[in-house]
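Here is one chain, start to finish.
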Amino acid sequence: MPGTGKLRRRSSVITEGVERAPHRALLRAIGLTDHDFGKPIVAIANSWNEVVPGHMHLDRVAKKIKEGIRTRDGVPLEFNTIAVCDGLAMGHEGMKFSLASREIVADSIETMMQAHCFDAFVGLASCDKIEPGMLMAMARLNLPSIFLNGGPMCIGRLGDKRLSTGDVFEAVGQYSAGKITFEELRMVEMYACPGPGSCAGLYTANTMAIVAEALGLMIPGASTIPAVDSKRLDAAYRTGLTLMELVETGLKAREIMSYEAFMNAIAVDAAMGGSTNAVLHLLAIAREAGVKLTLDDFDRVSKKTPYFVDLIPGGRYAVEDLDRAGGVPLVMKKLLEMGLMYGEALTVTGKTVGENLRNYEPPTPRMSQVVKDPADPISRRGSIVVLRGNIAPEGAVTKISGVKNLIHKGPAKIYESEEEAFRAVMNREIEAGDVVVIRYEGPRGGPGMREMLAVTAAIVGQGLGESVALITDGRFSGATRGLMVGHVSPEAAVGGPIAALRNGDTILIDAVNGRLEAEVSVEELQKRLKSWAPPSPRYTSGILARYSRYALSASLGAGLP
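Its structure:
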């Protein structure tokens, strides 16, 4: 197994020597004994809570991880970190705190790990910002470490309908358009979320879990196991065992988080139609790992990677269906066979990607309707498209999985906040052909770069998903469908060109050629921007005040410096 050899225990700083008697006394108070002081002390950073469906079961998963650690003679100690549910935070001021929480998760884990001299750690999490926050902490700390997610929620069922969280948001739009009754809306609400786990489709939470596996930071096949499946507890036990192997050999996180590993993760995301948030998070994780990653990398990989996994929201199947079909190893093996994966990239198993996949055989009977033949894909190119132009000189991002019309030209309807745009949609002010522009929702402007799911789902629910486009310096939920362009950079709050757009300007979105243009002359744009003045800060204290002052551009991952 690769690595630098057995590491000196960091925990010896608090367990060895006469001068550490006070430290040992405190450790005895939590139940440790002389027998434990000579062993590796490893952390489980767990985001369990009673608020979020994706996290409500993680206490049980953590117990199994501890069993694996103890089997290999480690001392596991668990601590918790925060976890924001993007679904619960959606559509109101709470969403401004979501992306900022990613930084808090990373910072809090770093703080606990460094203050208490842990030798290694397991990151245990579900949901959108907690998973990347833990991966950022892994990169920052560069210790033996491994990740495990809580698993996807099972698909909801209402008669012969298969439901997930995104369907509830879209049902709100259907109700506002008079397409369904209140009772029908209520039935969708009642049956869409049947229990624990990350929302059932390939939304951001499941995308980031899959990305973690593709990066090599999770045991193969674990990311797609449903939350309620007993195999997840087995994966938890094996995760504990594997962490102790990493401790024994000294294999550290950054040895796994290479440039090639990030290319593998991007390829898997492109092949599966994953969330655009993966772009934002991978940029931030790579920055922590010291890996130079840019939007051009996403564009280049996506252009040559076929999109061949048919998952909600762009497709028909849930992540639990992908698990039955063979999970991420099946997708990675197909990409490897096409020469689209770096087989030499290291993983937490101590083996390379190629070695892990060498003897992999998918389950039988094979579910070829979920993972299609890459030679006959859903699309010849991957799902992520980077756009540039006079609106977004630093770039913008869209996801084309499930989108029929990749080119849209229409008049701009400008809104200065998500709430303003949502009211316009619900009041039926948006018409076919329009380009909805939501600005001042970027990392600094929002602040917090909110997701626009309430708006986009209402547009789709009203039957306008194929005839209306949207651009924003904010973000989109992984549940978003339609031609929706986010991460427009530079953002409006720092004087980006999106701030100069006016109602009625003709906007061209060309996802075929990667163009995002306003049909406005250079001279006119410059004239408008000269008269622009930055808005007053929306927050003057707390985390959002700091975020609005220091957040990086979305093109750099929207983290804090």
